[in-house]
Design a protein that fits this description.
Strand order of the largest sheet: 18-31-32-33-29-30-19
Shape: flat
Radius of gyration: 31 Å
Distance between the termini: 49 Å
Number of strands: 33
Strand content: 15-25%
Largest sheet: 7 strands, mixed
Mean pLDDT: 89
Low-confidence stretches: 1-20, 198-213
Length: 737
Amino acid sequence: DERIAADGGARESKSKAKMSVASLEFHERSVPFGALVCAQLGGLGAEVEKVARKDINPKDPPLLVVKANGARFEGAATCLRYFARAGSMKSKLFVDENPVDACQVDQWIDWSVVMKPGQGLPELLKKINEFLSTRDFLVGGGLTLADVAVWGTLASMPLWENKLKKDKSLSSLVKWYEACSAIPEFAAVVAESKAKKGGATGADGKKQKEKSVGSFDIKLVGAEKGKVVTRFPPEPSGYLHIGHAKASLMNQYFAKHYEGKMILRFDDTNPSKEKDEFVENILHDLKSLEIHPDETTYTSDHFPKMLVLAEKMIKKGMLYADDTPVEKMREERMEGIDSVRRNRPVEENLKVFKEMQQGTEEGQKHCIRVKLDMQNLNKALRDPVCFRCNLTPHHRTGTTYKVYPTYDFACPYVDSAEGVTHSLRTIEYKDREAQFKWILKLQQEVEPSLPNVNIWEFSRLNMVNTVMSKRKLQWFVDTGRVSSWTDPRFPTVQGLLRRGLTVPALRDFILQQGASKNTTNQEWDKLWTLNKKLIDPVCGRHTAVVADKRVPVDLENGPAEPEVEIVLRHRKNPATGKKALTKTNRILIDQEDAKAVAKGEEVTFMSWGNCFIDDVKTDASGEVVGLVGRLNPGGDVKATKLKLTWLPDIQDNLDLNLVYYDHIITKKKIEEGDKIEDLVNPDSKKEVAAIGDSNCRNLQKGEIIQLERKGYFIVDEAYLNDKKPMVLNHIPDGRQK
């Protein structure tokens, strides 16, 4: 709901009115991206009827009809303003509290209207590019309607997408555009537009096989504002990985969208695998992902009630005790053969269940199964196990219990008992949906107060060359092939953050997948490219050379004594701070750079100036062992072919250990029958000793920097003393292999 302004917008009414539902009509090739993004930002995305037509002129302006009163509006800017005013972000998008900023927003919207292909467009884009070279947003310090309007115009312009976006002279404008495009609401609108066109096409005109983004523009069945309850139920048997991150974000998204709540529930039904360590780290990871559940519960909180429930169900003939050997039980389920224990007398079943609860030798031979349908084609319905004995002390309840419910029995009961309205599950649970509903129905016959639970499936997040199974990840840890669950090669949240992935990039990447049910294998490059766009504008620049490949350069006219200048760590971003740049008459460069230099050539030493190379000294093997040069202060930097990084040859330099990681397995997609030990990449970690500039001493653990011409790195171990090198983990940028 939105407060309605009684005087046309100057003053808010104290009463609330039901939000109008509008239709937006436009030609399918002239999508009003800005207006649609405003609807998404304001929480109206699912309430707007989008009518993409072929039978109208592509140049016709979009038409908006407010269904509550029939009001009609035309034009991209007008539609954009309507959704911005009608949604929940009106004040932020219009910057109402600042008259000057608000007027600037209006001016940018006016500019967005005249941004059309023609002679004046290139010059206008250059002005915008120059304007954006020193800022992240068009107005103020955050996203406003100005950004939405200009981005929307560019997004709907084929000339921009096909040509102008590739213009290197518009780099600041392109960075801003890509940063906006990465915002989930923007990405969702673009993805939906592509989907309605039947999918993106390649240069050959054929549909691409996979889409990398999805949409949240869906309605949950039976969802009501203020009443939706979702839950994220991790088993505390490992650390959260990127797949869990998607599930948790999905649950949070829909809970917030419907103004409901999200429960974090630890599904702690298997004491053999669960530890407090995993509980603590799951809580830590959710906090890192900025996911704050409204309530935290444990399945073990419900153990007493589930034992009572099981006893009642046994008395009604719904459950039975079975001591059939595991392999034989598996065969019978595969072939649809009833267990000989299926029709065991109720009293006998009750007696065995008590033995199980006491953990006796006889009790440990049994499990409890639920009577469903042993001949059903859906094998998940062939009398699944509901309770098992386990004498391992539980991480919360200790030795109180000797028998534990399985996920299949506990999940429907606890979902219902905790008031979960919508159970969001990945698509591989589709065959178990009928099982969930059947078991819950039996439980409801015993406890009629248990409410129904809606189920919504979404696609599992699969990444190429990646192990997601916690059992297999544990194998890597147990066999010493990785250091821990936080190893940078792992897809765990902590592993990814150690490798330099930022939380905003991870959240945006996951939210871009949307709520689609179509499962695809995502490339890591897409995630790292998104990450690079976020870190590049804000990370400081430093310099390093490979230690055993360094080559000295003697500068004949270099400063006799070291000269120190204080310069920006990032010349385009003063917020990154300053650093010391030391100039000396002997500097160090990399062997690869030294080999590329020819005698007599003029080169540029970055952040210093040009230099003539008068001599190139080599050894018998052809390795360069030294260069001699003369600085040329008046030289034209644009005229040189080689732009080289360098370090002063001084004692203040410090040792670095640059660590490069690769995929942990060699196969893109693990298939049934594959043995994980056959897929291990033996060369997934490479360490390179380097020398870094003295400013690196000030870097903190977790800080991201760029080593110029070497890529992006995150500080894994900060500087302590000269005896131990700093450790920097290389951050993929989506291009480097």
